[in-house]
Amino acid sequence: MLRAIEKALNTVTTPLSRVLRHIAGILLLVMTLIVVAQVLFRYILNIPLSWTDESSRFLMIYMTYLCLPFVYLTDKNIAMTFVTEILEKKTPRLFAFLTLLAHIAAIIVFAVWIKFGWNFFETGSVMADSLPIPMFVVYIIPPVMMAITILYAVQKSIAAMRAMLGDFEDVSQTAKTAGLFEAPAATEEAPEQEPKQTQSLASETAA
Known about the structure:
Blueprint: H1 2-43, H2 52-74, H3 82-90, H4 92-122, H5 136-139, H6 141-164, H7 174-179, H8 185-206
Helix pairs in contact: 1-2, 1-6, 2-6, 3-4, 4-6
């Protein structure tokens, strides 16, 4: 039953995390263009733009929260893993139990974050300083993304419970999902270099 629930959640969370990640990448590109435009206008044309600082800050906030579900799903957050790797190899069920506690703690933190984020959202009727948008447009993204990320925490908690029962299969295929967005150049170039090295050795032997 735990597998069925995890698979059902995964059919929603994995494609959603990819879409949100792509949107965050687009926002990063837009933010970069805005910052470059500000540098050009300020230091070359001597006409500083008043809206670039605030707009780039808002885009960074959106970008950060949109990436959170993908980071949580694929365990790409910054962490010191030398202890957890030992526990995972030596005592996998204990590691699963500690992982479950961590996900439960994350759910509690996200719930508190939603509460305070919603309070900020309710005070967001004021307009931004340099942009013609109300501040609730910015304040809405933290509680919404925290609520979405709770689904990922629930999914990871179910995986941890399965591991505690001895089922260690990666049903969600998080490693495969993370690998889709990693540069394969290093792994692809190595096989191509081997024939060249073999040919050079063969030529040297023949000489």
